[in-house]
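Ticket #4471: complex job returned nothing on first submit. Input attached below:
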Amino acid sequence: MASFKLGRMVMRSLFKKPATLMYPVIQREWQERTRGHIENEIDECIFCGICQKKCPANALTVDKISKSWTIARMQCIQCSCCIEVCPKKCLKNMNIYTSPSTEKVVDRYVGSPQESKPVPKAAPEEENEAVGEKVL
Amino acid sequence: MGKRTIIPFGPQHPVLPEPVHLDLVIEDEKVIEAIPSIGFIHRGLEKLVEKKEYTELVYVIERICGICSFGHGWGYCHAVESLMNIEIPERANYLRTIWHELSRMHSHMLWLGLLADGFGFESLFMHCWRLREKVLDLFEKTTGGRVIFSVCKVGGVRKDIDKADLKEIVNVTRGMEKEFRELADTFMKDYSVKNRLAGIGVLSKEDALELCTVGPMARASGVYLDMRLTGHGVYDKLGFEPCIETAGDCYARCIVRIREIYQSIDLISKAAEMIPDGEIAVPVKGNLPKGEFIARLEQPRGECFYYAKGADSKFLERFRVRTPTNINLPALVKILQGCDLADVPMLILTIDPCISCTER
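Support reply: We reran it on our side without changes. The output follows.
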């Protein structure tokens, strides 16, 4: 039996740097594999909807007609299931978390109209500008 | 004979990380009887088998609990693989064992911290959790998640650990061993800590067997019981032997968990040495889960039981988890009888309650 068994460790830690980081002044180093959030390279997406079907949290909505891919950030559980099933491999796992928010963030990605398809009327220029944009 | 009073303990209480409620019938500071009630965080996860395909269900099952998430994923995958007669590659089995043992380390360190916090040793609690952080960093590096890993899948594992990372895991855990020895010495030899733990909440071997206790709780009472002996993973190749103590009190339960951390470090080193090269997963195509299977796994808290029933479709008919905390609750009620009111938090903590698992 002894007392102050932890004394040495406590004394040592007095002269060490803190074990915690002064966030947000000092940012954390993310690992390569960290599952932070999902991004979509929308121009490569074919809007097949497999990711929507397979998503365990029902966080994805894919609309083939309006060429939009929507992710409910707060619903996504970062399991990377969609990345695995994506046939075009256009979904990417980014190793940084999305910034904290008090509202339910929904990110919408809109794809460009396919060039090979004959378009009955020339698409208005405004729509072309919105290509690949991220609407919050 | 003094006056009998009923003290409600929980569901919100400083020592309880999760909600469980106990009605303590006390008489002159002595607990006569304890009546537990659970059901505060039931989420109905088992019901989701009807809505999620068996390949996606693993993500749901992993989220039953934050601390034993890897074990739940493994148990589910093992059950479904057995239903489908899938033989997983040897390397996947080794990787699962390594991750599972790392989970055990972080679970036991978390528990030691909570115990230290429970008896009011704040700096010991902080140092336990500081060390645990290194294991979480290893998880983040190898799987991408700190708490929920999502690496287990039906047919194997999703991610491989390369040689450099395996070496780092061994180096980090070996480095932790030195520091952990100081912490363990505090738990095992410090006068004030021992006073709070030794001789408190004794559960005899007979009672442990009669009340069907599992995990460190049973092993601390001298019961030779560990699901790792049944041959899941590669434990038989690693020469695994369970840690047994005979005293059956809070101190013995603490010692069992401390010894298991050392044992996990050894098992990880051995597994990292012996791991063969090769595939990490086999493709799952063709047949669908059919029939019934019961998988048993040694979670950090004890034996966990997974029942899966396939319906020859993409959706399982039934999936059920029986968790160690559920089984240890009768033993908790038993050891609470006759204890001091001040020891109640200690006793609740030493069964390592995980209420999220229990209620799912």
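The CA atoms of residues 87 and 264 of chain B lie 25 Å apart. Closing as resolved unless it happens again.
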